[in-house]
Amino acid sequence: GLFVTDYFTRTPRKLSPFRSFASIELFHFHIPEDTVIAVWNLITFKEQGGTFGDQCPDRSITVYFRSGAPSVINPLHTHFPRDTAVPGSFALTLTWTLPNRTTGVFNVTSPLPGDWFLAAHLPKDEGKISVKGLYEECQYLFQPQLIVQRLVNIAVLYPGYVTEQSMAPHNRSCLYKVFVPSYTSRVLVEVLRCRGAEGCPLWLRVRAKAPPLHNSTALDCREHDPCQLALDLPFWQHWYYVLVEKHPGVPGTISFQVTVQLTDCSQPSLARPPFLPSSASMNMPHSFGSAGGMALGDSPPPTSPNGTKHPVPIASPASERCWPIRPTLRNELDTFSVHFYIFFGPNVSVPPDRPAVFVINLLPVLDSGGVLNLELRLNVSSLCGENVTVFGCLNHEVPLTSSDNTSVTCETESLAGFLLSVNATASLSRLRIPYPQTGSWYLSLRSLCATEHGFEPCTNVTAEVYLRTYLSPCINDCGIYGQCKLLRTNNYLYAACECKAGWNGWGCTDNSEAFSYGFQLLSTLLLCLSNVMFVPPVAIAVRSHYLLEAAVYIFTMFFSTFYHACDQPGIVVFCIMEYDVLQFCDFLGSLMSVWVTVIAMARLQPVVKQASVLYLLGAMLLSMALQMDRHGLWNLLGPSLFALGIMAVAWTARTIRRRHCYPPTWKRWAFYLCPGALIAAAAVLLYAFVETEENYFYIHSIWHLLIAGSVGFLLPPRAKPSRRLGPLPRRKGCGYQLCVNEQEELGLVDPAVASINSICTS
After folding, report:
1. Residue 125: pLDDT band by 50, 70, 90 thresholds?
2. What is the CA radius of gyration of the chain?
């Protein structure tokens, strides 16, 4: 056949350590029909400071693959919520082959067409809280690329028609496809009039949606005469691929005929007439591949280009009839908030002699990022005292109706489903499917009576059940210890839970590492009450007449207390304002406390008469910086260095003018400046290098204590107004008068120790 190669790529993205599904990077691809092979090229590289991160440690990268919907992953092996079905996916771990780059290749032969999703993440880290901009972090970037090779002009088999084929010696196989419409209960593929050098050395393989594989449903035509392969309960509204493969080492040309028969379950004794589909199969594609396009209702040609002849009568075994399928009404309330209403529901009557079948249609792409919820509640009063059990089978793309009325399974050799049951003792049953595959989901309800010999069909008992089906963003809205987040990757939306307070799991229901109520209360009290340490600096500032500084400290103490009361992850939370307002005021108060303290230490009042201009300028600049980036390193370091520069210039000017060090007393250095600087440095080191998510509540409380304590040591004493002597007589003529406040120049701690003198010389 003729192959066409398509190439798809995605933009590199930064990977994050896994904490919940909200921390993964999701990539969305679309594989076209008739694809015979898909190759994913997985490129990963390191970056640090805008260059290749050769010095970054090697961290394993896990990639998940799933068709139809995102993968439901659980790398931390947490517990899922009750009644949750976990669909499977394939995982791949990438290892590093070069210091800063690695490449992995993942091949899928005959992949299913449609949407494919890749999820990637780094392993869970220790949860260190790093200051943004303190050092260049190692970034791990991941970029997937997809190369697909698909066949064009695949021959199409028409139901009831015979196609002749000759396989040349250099050919090994022939590939066909046939479309299976709705209400088809059986697909029969048969090889006729096979003639070769060694009988009929052919393999017959059939697979839905994609070309067959080595493990697909197969039949050896040498051992079976006639060579017929039957598939019960095929997927509706899908292509089925038929592969006729020659045994290896068989010489010569092999000629054969292939025919396909579809059984319409609405008429179980008859095969589906060719090109006369039932009213339920009106979604058949208008294009029939290499056989030419033909709209529904057109009459078939006498002979098609690929050798198809007129239909021949083929015996069709009787099949079980299919029951009417009741549709549901879709009501969209919000993103991933969809209710499916049943006409004349929500109470459903389940007769004893036949099942009740409903269909739920999930839209492609739009509905696969949420959770499909199903709830069955039995009305016990409708059982009339009988021991009745109502079984429900939820299957994808085809309803499961078994001829054995006593069977309680929802699975076959080629079909898997979900089983629900309700009875008089357990009248409620729930099912949750996170990230469901889109398309049609069929729910079949039937009632059976329990006897000594198992389940048997009931007589004259019509059970009544309450049926509720809906689509939600997350499971139970992630509970009280989680937050349901709506995430986006390019044009694809999906939802995931982000848990807190030590709770884990897909719905934040795993409490194996959860914080107790006492622990939550203790952490909240520590973070809030540690701000009381600002009371001594406020008292010192008021006593020294630093009223503006005292007001800033009170502002910081107030908003830091209530910000941490609102910032708690558990249920011990108290918010007096919006969280964003409290966070801004807390950060602004902390930076302003540093600013006014250092400006006060510079003692600019005798030099700059309007030192309050610096206070106002600092408040405006800090507000602007916090609005730009609240977690940046330079928001704390920049104003502090600028204020320290002003203080250094002021102290240097005094030192040069006085010709000795300022402050001049060793007591000021030994008992106040050095201890205060050491305490502040210890606080900064704890904040920048020691703080993690696990020790946050007590390390950050120590940070509060140390910062407030350092302010009490560093805040300079305020000089009292000097009691000047009367003005000395001034000589006439040229001269000057110099007044020096000895107490202010000496920088004494206690003004009462020294006498207050003003020496004026002319």
Report:
1. confident
2. 39
527 inside domain: yes
Task: Measure the CA–CA gap between 185 and 271, rounded to whole angstroms.
Answer: 10
Residue 229 belongs to domain spanning: 155-264
Question: Residue 479: inside a domain, yes or no?
Answer: no
Same domain, 146 and 162: no
Side-chain-side CA neighbours of 280 within 13 Å: the count stands at 18
Closest-CA residue to 163 (of 154, 171, 172): 154
What is the residue-averaged pLDDT of the chain? 82
Question: How many domains does the chain fold into?
Answer: 4
**Hey, which residues does 150 pair with through a beta bridge?**
4, 35
Query: In terms of Cα–Cα distance, which of 689, 688, 663, 676 is closest to 744?
Result: 663
288-292 average pLDDT score:
32
Closest CA to 625 of 73, 132, 65: 132
Q: Which range among 55-64, 196-205, 573-582, 721-730 shows the weakest confidence by mean pLDDT?
A: 721-730
What distance in Å separates the CA atoms of residue 543 and residue 752, rounded to the nearest whole number? Answer: 13
Instruction: Examine the fold and report which residue of 211, 242, 264 is the final residue of a domain before the chain moves on.
Output: 264
Asked if residue 60 lies in contact with residue 124, where contact means CB atoms within 8 angstroms, the answer is no
Q: Is residue 195 part of a domain?
A: yes
Q: What number is the average pLDDT over the span 653-678?
A: 83
pLDDT for res 318: 36
140 with 184, same domain: the answer is no
- pLDDT tens digits along 308-354: 444 433 333 333 567 788 889 999 988 889 999 988 778 888 888 88
Please write the tens of the pLDDT for every residue from 86-109: 988 899 999 888 888 888 999 999
- Same domain for 362 and 428? yes
Q: What is the residue whose two structure tokens read 């009632």?
A: 447
Our CA dihedral for 470, 471, 477, 479, rounded to 10 degrees, sits at 60
CA–CA separation, 217 vs 205, rounded Å? 6
Task: Give counts: helices (H), strands (E), the chain.
Answer: 10, 35
pLDDT for res 603: 79
Rounded to whole angstroms, the Cα distance separating 232 from 204 reads: 16
CATH number at residue 119: 2.60.120.380
Residues 6+ apart with CB under 8 A from 431: 83, 85, 373, 374, 375, 394, 418, 420
Domain end among 264, 280, 313: 264
Phi, psi of 320 (to 5 degrees): -65, 140
Q: Phi/psi at 266 (nearest 5 deg)?
A: -75, -20
Residue 741 lies in a domain: no
Residues 521 and 667 in one domain: yes
> Which of 42-65 are b and which e, b meaning 16 or more Cβ less than 10 Å from the residue's Cβ?
bbbbbbbeeeebeebeebebbbbb
Residue 407: per-residue pLDDT: 60
| Per-residue confidence (pLDDT) for residue 651, from 0 to 100 | 83
Average of per-residue pLDDT across 9-15:
93
> Does the structure show a pLDDT above 90 at 695?
no
pLDDT of amino acid 727: 52
Which one of 129-143, 146-160, 737-751 scores highest in mean pLDDT?
Answer: 146-160
Same domain for 161 and 73? no
Taking CB atoms within 8 Å and a gap of at least 24, the contacts of 269-276 are 269/316, 269/318, 270/316, 271/159, 271/160, 271/314, 271/316, 272/159, 272/160, 272/181, 272/184, 273/160, 274/158, 274/159, 274/160, 274/161, 274/300, 274/311, 275/158, 275/299, 275/300
Note whether 338 and 250 are same-domain residues.
no
Residues 135 and 244 in one domain: no
Residues 368 and 445 in one domain: yes
- Taking each helix axis from N to C terminus, what angle separates 612-628 and 579-602, rounded to the nearest 10 degrees? 140
The domain that holds 451 is classified in CATH as 2.60.120.680
Q: Does residue 529 contact residue 562 with C-beta atoms inside 8 Å?
A: no
